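Re: duplicated header lines in exported structure tokens

Our pipeline writes sequence and tokens for each protein into one text file. With two proteins the header for the second block appears twice in some exports. Here is an export where it did not happen, for reference. First protein block:
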Amino acid sequence: MAMMLIQVLIGGLLQGGMYALGAFGLSLVFGVLGILNVAHGDFLMLGGLLCYGAYVALGLDPLVSLLIVIPVFFGVGCLFERMFIQPLLAKPHHELLMGSILVTLGVALAIEDLVPFFWTQSFSGIPYTVRSLVVGDVVIPTLRLAVLASILTLTLLLHLFLRHTLIGTALRAMTQNRQGAMLVGVELSRLSMLAFGIGTALVATAGVAHVMLYSITPTMGIPLTLKYLTIVVLGGLGSLLGSILGGMVLGLSEALTSLYVGPEWAPTVAFIVLIAVLVTRPQGLFGGRRP
């Protein structure tokens, strides 16, 4: 029983790494722009579909397809920001937040309605196998371990970017005082487009990892966004470190629920955690911190 518990805990931590990778871009965009992108999960789905299409049509290894997915979705994010987010940025904070929710929800629903017209398969996944690490009686999936290592590396790189570059300093200035940043010459328009492009590229990267481990479905976007929102709220809105911690907590919670209660209850854990955090600590575990 002890070895089973250890195996479950390791699986929960590695699953938490997957969740954190998906939530990273959502947290970054909220931290910099103060908007909630409900279409976030749909960009993950589209990133996974592009990876799958490259695998089927060109025989590209999913990891190699990142060289296509990342720049494509950086561009998609920039275009999306120009078309749907830019017109909202001049509004007061509460109107900006509500406007972003309504606009991106509409886009998310449109994506989920349109994708089946162009993609007739109900489920798409890539049979990607890598030898697992075996430590005694504990099996550690190498691919999920690589995802966890990737999110830790991304956290470090983004921290260095935000703290030690001029663009990063400008982005942080926007999170603290948007009007003050504009008064000293920070270009809100370009920086908001850059932040949204980076956030979209990050979640598309998570889509590549997702299609290697699971399957992609056209209607998975909004449920995933709700799960990632739980992680962001749990870790603290706008906190990149909090996204990692929130992902780990959710992954462990789902794993332990599956073990002791039943796997059919695992999907409900995210919503229970979300309600509990909003009631007891609405600022999140890292509330008040920003990138």
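Second protein block, exported in the same file:
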Amino acid sequence: MLPRLLKEKQEEALSPFAMHSRLSRGRLKAEVHCDVRTVYERDTGRIIYSLDFRRLRHKTQVFFDPQNDHICTRMEHVIYVNYIAKTIGRALSLNTDLIEAIALGHDLGHTPFGHSGEATLNRCLEESGTGLRFQHELHSLRVVDRLAARPGGPGLNLTFEVRDGIASHCGETYGEFLLVPDRNKVDDAIEQTALTHGFPVTLEGCVVRIADKVAYVGRDIEDAVRAGLMEFDDVPRAIQSSLGRTNGQIINTLVTDIIENSIGRDQIMLSQERGESMEELLRDNVERIYRSDKIDRYEKMVSNVIEGLFDALVQATHDPERLANSDHRVYRAFWHYLQERVWPESDHALQPVIDYIAGMSDSYASKCFEDIYWF
């Protein structure tokens, strides 16, 4: 028996609520099956070998601090999400191959400088009067569907379930204790799901969505401690008593609670007590970390860089001939980027600028800004 068929046979022992690889709704373009790997294993390979995944190691999670090797990057975050989600998935007898692909791909479309970069780029679009907006979940879908390159054409041609999990992973809805898969979702509703923060089509996607929060709620405190913003003892005593006094304790408490309340059910659920404690801790992080003076100063820097790049590149697109003949390395690199890709007529004229900036690492964005504006 082929290795892939053996794996698919073994999946019959999974939970009745698990997604089976052989039942995938398929890819945007049909492909011949691999003899060795399941469809979701192939998706994971395409994701981790993409240049977009590679750049995550140079993208901010919360803190931009290139001098501190221990501050969490976007790459480390997706690895933590993957580990936590697979731990939950194994305990619930779900398809961990599907979980892994979604977890490792869920932030491929994040901007440089984390959510600060995302907010600034979205504000630039709002002020442009075009009606465009930027949402990293949707852009992650755009990356895997259109921008990431592989032999045979643009896009990674991932399965429906992985694409859906990426687009509907939203980890910023704090009061979410119960996730029920939207199994009736139609194939062309993925983008709308991202806009409305609807639930994933699979239970595996729901696991990744909740694991995203579990991964960062305590880890952001660790980074804040390293940045000198707070100490773990600053966390309210009631939350410490409910969840724990370290990141490891918080993760263990939440993972155990999720498993206990979700096993044997077609839903992913936190108990009321742990769910409310996690929500309270997330909101406490907003006040102590995300709205701190240090982050505020950082966001001002991010705004300058992203706005400066956006204005310069938009202006450059107004004069294609000058852009093509420019000897400035930033504009020359942008010109080559434009020539290497096919831009459908349905794309707005600003879309290449959005794609180019969103794909930058923190360091590359900063360097481009300096090259344009510093003398």
